[in-house]
Amino acid sequence: MPDQADLLPGTLDLLILKSVSLGAVHGYGVLLRIEQISDGALEIQQGALYPALYRLEHNGLIESEWGTSDNNRRAKFYRLTRAGRRQLGDREASWQRLVEAMTSVLTATPQQV
Amino acid sequence: MSLSGLVARVRSLWHGLRYRGDVEAEMTAEFRHHLELRTEDLIRDGLTQEDAARQARIEFGHIESHKHDARVSRGLWLFDEVRFSALDVKLGIRMLLKYPGLSVISVIGMSVAIAIGAGGFGVIESTLDPTLPLPEGERVVSSARSRPTVAT
User: Nearest 5°: CA angle at A92, between A90 and A98?
Assistant: First the structure.
């Protein structure tokens, strides 16, 4: 089993937005996508996903629609809105800046200071 | 917050309050769907139906607290807290009639408490912020003596 990484505060929303941006998906599917893509390194506490999904929907970043899932059950599918796509772009860029800054600090050598 | 974000919030809140029952039912259905899918996955992993269902519930966590968090996410929680229930009023009146002695004592108790409170407030106000005994005395902010010089 791969090492599990702790989620930083605020990253759950970004993960959900990214996961939903890959195509309409129901709640359980969001979890599966994140686990699958991160190769099991990121695991989200299952029930905690829904308050986050509803918050994103409340803020107009994702929208939902009832449909039929693969196994012929009624399921609520989420998709990204235009505002959500814009927000995802902004958050991705800000995440990249953070990663670059952290990397340059963590790889600093005595000669650099 | 952007304008579109504000519009989305107001719309979501309106929908939540207008179709409150549907929102709750959808949430229950969505959680159930999640638990069913998770149970099926666990059965595929080799668990028995019963163990899988139990494991899925454990992994999901406390359903009611997730529902509470979800209501907070939708901004509905505050409305629930202050919701004025007709049933509460009916029940209150019925209890007052059922125990008239207690009702009379409560009314007397409240009148005395309010009178003491108001009286105390009056005393404090007249001490800290006295007004002049004149018509509209509270509007007087300063007074000064003047001695007009009379030309002779």
Answer: 105
